[in-house]
Design goal:
It is a single chain. The protein is of the alpha+beta class and about 900 residues long. Helix content is about 20%, strand content about 30%. It contains 16 helices and 42 strands. Strands 11-10-9-8-14-13-12 form a seven-stranded antiparallel β-sheet. Strands 1-2-3-4-6-7 form a six-stranded antiparallel β-barrel. It has a four-stranded antiparallel β-sheet with strand order 15-42-41-40, with no helix packed on it. Helix 5 packs antiparallel against helix 6. It is globular.
Length: about 900
């Protein structure tokens, strides 16, 4: 397996995957981490590693955690001179680092999500070779300056200059040649590429060997490949540029022996042609056409042929944005026996995954027709780094942690069941993923949790463990054997050319792609954009990152229809039109034995959204003197609280159908309200720059947080953290001692972070897990933040005016926003791309949504039910006589309360 092969070279615990994406590991020094205690200093021996954006300390004692200190969080790095006073105990010089957070990795030598400790810490390190201490500190100060630059482009340029300087000051050590008789042909600087990481160094090619020497000596001092063992070489696109070269010493393995990225195309081409000339006597160069002929005549299996096509189309197991792509071939994951003589067992290979469900396709096509150029049918791709690691998390947990900032995905979004995953690819609004070669290989470890990883607990209470297999597979090995047999079956052999037309062939682009419903986002295609033509380095890096995370379409190999395989016809297996199963005929995955209340709740929500057009008003009440700005409800539903521009917080009793309390905190408008988890406290934000805490049992103001320099526009609460958004262009994160709130004492608030924006922040929202925050500004910019590091994950300028409201989808994959420009936009969280945009007839002010349907309130006072897949309004409901300004929906999605500029609050119920 690709991920395991690259790790076999080193048995040590440290890995380049502990670095951030696009970070380099420069040098290491044997050192001691010195921790002071009351009696005497404790010294932990290990390796002190200097990286381009962090310092990593890897202790020799495997029970001790690896420490990672991001340089951007360092407040002070200094050289502490050795003690020279003869009357004192001699002390060596040390490196002192004062930092705002430390990341703990592999505690007790267990692969698990990283633990982050925040708060000012002073870390002391003592190098074994004292004389190098001052030089190391100077290096760290230089890299710290780079990490603290405002613009990402400037950071990247300064780090690249440091790297090039290091490479220029060193050269390949010819003492590493295997033979003194070897004649060197060429030497140059390169990076060795592995999944998610790359390692700079020098290569040297001789008349006998290709050598790579890493700058940092990791994973070993030199890697050697004998030229007479090389079987295949491929030029590669790396970061959309022709700089890659991949070398294979096997004929049919899809994992190469080395993948190199050069700094210029001329060096890459010279090495390529030198190896190609050297190998003329040993191998013949294959083209797509030569492999096609071998496959047609049965000399290559379907599996081997697809591997060769992937290789020729720039797909590599070392590049997760261009990982080899294989098709789903089976459509039956519910039967106890797999009948390979029945066509309905198989997936329709004439269609891309997105077109297999006709109902979903109709909605996507309706959206496509109303889309401005450049149009696309699918907002996500069939292959991306996230999808590859979704499948491989059990064998590549460190890759998943690297990609996701030290966390696994939510347990319910993990690869839990093959049947469930197939069903989601048929039904999901944005899930069109294909498979990877491992599904047709011999190693079943990616389906089993052999490392005993703690991957979380699902909503139904079950732990994420081994992948749940279809009933027709007795175990993981049996599944792979039958799956491989299905790939080589007569039906697939007769129809595989149709899938090749879609992915590698003439239906990949142009009018044929449109006719085949096979059009993806333009940025996923080779040549879709020239990143070098983008002058602003920040924009160029952001665009490149977006493309690599989103996934890329393979290089087009065939421009005319691919011929069918010549197969002996024992059975005539064809797929009649009646067999093209609509999704309603597909059996769902077998019900899990852990089915529970959460599953019923989820099912109830789905049913509620399917019937949302039956929303009917129950009662309306005018209890405010100005527009309603916020609505929140006690957990038992007995009391409703609302805020208004009339500066009051009102409590309304649903039983008595009348308002019971009115509270005013100042003479300025209140902008929003929320109920804390204890059900006893309502928090209100105000235009007077303050946040007020109101105690329901005591019926009075309990506390005031004076936190901003302008109006507070909206708030969120999760755990013990309060997030406040303000027109002063900040979002502030506060920690509150939870016991002080429940005991109704004066609360202690600690400011944890201040998230800066370029314009006033008008709206914020948290995802369900509290791990992501989205903020929307008056200038139309949306920003997605990581709530553990408070770093920016994505930023998109998605509206031409103020953003009124934003919210995550239940699965946290998308964000919906509405703004003053009357647009309704869907942003992909992983890539930051606006994957859907629709111009509504009027401004939409607030909404609730389930990921594909939206109930929103507009400027005219109507409630509109939108279907986002077709971008159409399916239902209009008369509601308020002025703009709808606030909306609340219960957990089961069966009750809605709206507030408007007409000062009314309307209670709605879903009629069954």
């Amino acid at each position: 397996m690709a991920f395991l092969k690259t790790r076999e070279r080193t048995k040590e615990r440290f890995s380049l995957l502990l670095l951030d994406l696009e970070e380099y590991y420069f040098e290491q020094h044997t050192a001691y981490h010195v921790t002071a205690s009351s009696t005497k200093d404790r010294k932990i021996r290990g390796s002190f590693k200097v990286c381009s954006r962090s310092v990593i300390f890897d202790p020799d004692d495997l029970e001790e955690p690896i420490l990672k200190i991001p340089l951007r969080d360092c407040k002070k790095i200094e050289f502490v001179e050795k003690e020279t006073n003869p009357f004192n105990e001699p002390k060596p010089s040390t490196i002192s680092i004062s930092c705002g957070q430390v990341i703990y990795i592999k505690e007790s030598n267990v692969i698990a999500p990283y633990r982050i400790e925040r708060g000012t810490k002073r870390m002391t390190f003592q190098l074994e070779v004292w004389s190098k201490t001052e030089d190391v500190v100077q290096t760290l100060l230089q890299l710290h300056r780079a990490s603290c630059l405002d613009r990402l482009g400037d950071q990247t340029a300064m780090i690249a200059a440091n790297l090039q300087s290091r490479l220029a000051r060193s050269s390949f050590d010819k003492n590493c040649f295997q033979s003194v008789a070897e004649k060197p042909h060429m030497e140059c600087e390169v990076e060795m590429v592995m999944p998610l990481v790359s390692n700079p160094g020098h290569i040297c090619i001789t008349d006998e060997n290709l050598y790579f020497q890493p700058l940092n000596g990791y994973p070993e001092q030199v890697i050697q490949i004998k030229l007479h063992r090389v079987r295949r070489i491929y030029k590669r696109r790396r970061g959309l540029r022709p700089l890659g070269l991949e070398v294979f010493c096997t004929e049919n393995d899809f994992c190469s022996d080395i993948y190199l990225k050069f700094y210029n195309t001329a060096d890459r081409d010279e090495i390529y042609y030198y190896i190609a000339t050297f190998l003329e006597n040993h191998m013949t160069e294959h083209t797509a056409e030569s492999y096609m002929l071998q496959w047609q005549r049965g000399h290559l299996s379907n599996y081997q042929y697809l591997l060769h096509l992937n290789n020729l189309a720039d797909r590599s197991c070392n590049d997760l944005s261009q990982y080899p792509v294989f098709p789903w071939v089976i459509a039956d994951y519910t039967s106890t026996q797999l009948d390979m003589t029945n066509a309905t067992t198989f997936r329709d290979l004439t269609k891309p995954v997105g077109a297999l469900n006709k109902e979903r396709l109709d909605r996507l096509l309706a959206r496509y027709k109303g889309m401005p150029e450049p149009r696309f049918m699918y907002g996500s791709h069939y292959s991306s780094p996230g999808y590859v690691l979704f499948y491989l998390v059990r064998v590549a947990p460190e890759h998943m942690l690297c990609l996701q900032n030290g966390r696994y995905d939510h347990a319910d979004r993990m690869f839990n069941s093959i049947g469930e995953t197939w069903k989601n690819c048929l039904d999901g609004a944005t899930d069109f993923k294909e498979l990877i070669p491992e599904f047709y290989g011999n190693d079943a470890s990616f389906l089993e949790n052999r490392l005993s990883l703690d991957l979380g607990r699902r909503q139904n209470g079950s732990l994420v463990h081994d992948v749940i297999l279809p009933p027709w597979a007795s175990d993981a090995s049996d599944f792979l054997q039958k799956h491989r047999a299905a790939l080589e079956s007569q039906y697939v052999s007769e129809h595989l050319h149709e899938w090749i037309d879609l992915v590698f062939g003439f239906k990949q682009r142009g009018s044929e792609a449109v006719a085949a419903h096979n059009v993806f986002h333009p940025l996923t295609y080779e040549g879709g954009i020239d990143c070098d033509s983008i002058e602003d380095p920040d924009q160029r890096i952001a665009m490149l990152t977006q493309i690599l995370e989103f996934g890329q379409t393979p290089k087009q190999l065939f421009s005319s229809p691919h011929p069918q395989r010549i197969t002996p016809r024992f059975h005539n297996i064809t797929r009649s039109s009646s067999i093209n199963s609509p999704v309603s005929e597909l059996s769902p995955a077998s019900q899990s034995e852990y089915s529970s209340f959460e599953d019923l709740t989820e099912e109830s929500r789905k049913m509620a959204w399917a019937n949302m057009s039956n929303l009917k008003p129950v009662s309306s009440h005018k209890i405010h003197k100005e527009a309603v700005t916020g609505i929140t409800v006690t957990r038992d539903g007995a009391a409703v609280f609302s805020t208004s521009q009339d500066s009051t917080l009102k409590m309304f009793s649903k039983e008595l159908k009348d308002f019971q309390r009115s509270m005013s905190f100042s003479n300025m408008a209140l902008s929003s309200c929320l109920m804390l988890a204890d059900g006893k406290t309502v928090v209100c934000s105000s235009w007077d720059n303050n946040v007020y805490f109101y105690s329901i049992p005591y019926g009075r103001r309990q506390d005031t947080l004076m936190g901003h320099d302008d109006a507070v526009s909206e708030m969120c609460w999760f755990g013990d953290k309060l997030y406040t958004a303000s027109w002063d262009s900040t979002v502030k994160v506060w920690q509150c001692a939870s016991d002080s709130l429940s005991s109704h004492k004066r609360s202690q608030f600690e400011l944890l972070a201040e998230l800066e924006h370029d314009a006033g922040v008008n709206t914020i929202g948290l995802n369900a897990a509290g791990t992501l925050l989205v903020s929307g500004c008056k200038d139309g910019t949306a920003t997605i933040w990581d709530t553990s590091s408070y770093g920016t994950l994505q930023q998109a300028h998605c509206h031409s005016g103020t953003i009124h409201h934003m919210a995550f989808s239940p699965d946290s994959r998308h964000v919906l926003s509405v703004g003053a420009d009357s647009c309704m936009n869907v942003i992909d969280v992983q890539t930051g791309m606006v994957i859907s945009s629709v111009k509504a007839g009027e401004e939409q002010r607030c909404f609730c949504w389930d990921g594909s349907s939206v109930l929103c309130g507009g400027q005219s006072g109507e409630l509109l039910l939108w279907d986002l897949l077709s971008n159409t309004v399916t239902t209009r409901i008369a509601a308020h006589s002025g703009a709808v300004t606030a909306m609340w929906m219960n957990e089961l999605c069966t009750t809605v309360i709206t507030g408007g500029e007409d000062r009314q609050m309307i209670f709605w119920k879903l009629q069954s």
